[in-house]
Prior knowledge:
The protein is α/β, with parallel strands linked by helices. It has helices at 3-23, 26-38, 44-57, 60-68, 95-103, 119-130, 156-165, 189-200, 221-231, 242-257, 291-300, 342-348; strands spanning 81-85, 107-111, 138-140, 149-153, 171-174, 178-182, 210-216, 263-264, 269-272, 282-288, 305-310, 322-324. The model has no long low-confidence stretch (mean pLDDT 94).
Amino acid sequence: xxxxDRINAFSALGLFLEKSLADNTxxxxxxxxxxxxxxxxxxxxxxxxxxxxxxQMLQKNNLQNWTDKYDLPQINQNPKKIGVIMAxxxxxxxxHDALCVLISGHILHAKLSSDDQLLIPFLLKKLxxxxxxxxxNIHFIERMNDxxxxxxxxxxxxxxxxxxxxxxxxHIIRKNRHSVAIFNGKETKEDFLKLGEDxxxxxxxxxxxxxxxxxxxxxxxxxxxxxxxxxxxVFEDVYIHNKYANNYDYNKAIYLIKKIKHYDNNFLIxxxxxxxxxxxxxxxxxxxxxDQHLNEIISKNQEKIQCIVSKDAFFENSxxxxxxxxxxxxxxxxxxxxxxxxxxxxxxxx
Length: 350
């Protein structure tokens, strides 16, 4: 089983997903319904959105260009057992880690999240249609007792446990991250609509969802904040979802009781704060003095930030996590969680 075999198989999986999505097959419809039955956050349209993103990611030229950067051997002569503890905050969020392990020729030992028990097995089972022999490299397990390295995703609290428990093994331990948006005062209605996608896709549950915006000092309320708020009114249907509505109602009650200044458009609360992570159904904002001040803020909080979105991705930094509005939820193969190169990590495991 060569690297070329694996690339061809994942590419075929991408084409299968692309065709299934285009045909709206009964199989995908049932998968989405079962996923929602297991996790109420996983609306069918969100699951389909993720599957579409995966299908685009798995285009053969994307896979080839991505793997070429690491000069991987055609045959991994010393495959290792890589334990992957997967998250379940958004549909199939653990797929990229599974892809990295398998495409590099290692052996996947995956612990599924209790919130996403269906989508990863579905995708990897379909992969076997195109490369049956890779089955020996795919294992779903409950305990990480017999692995050579660990990739684990969780909260800040679980990360501390992971770091202690797996301290003696090579590891990538991921913590909570969130994404931010930066305004410079030149934004248009179209930019605000795109930013709405970065905020509300997957109900704001992912690390690539924008939870905070940075505004230039003196940003005019009537010509800036209010137009932004009015424009994103098109996303008001998120309130129809019971879990989202419960979060909104709870946070609104807290802010009213405590008499904290905020904006409210009946489905999203906007409040000033220096914090990065806002609760579900809330968005924080903070003013920056100038470019230097903005760079200082971002640098200080870099370990808490997954993506930075801005008009035409004008804000650039050395971490390569700057995107245009509307692109946060469309990661490329090389856009790694926590900005840690998973493939480089896997290549060095000997």
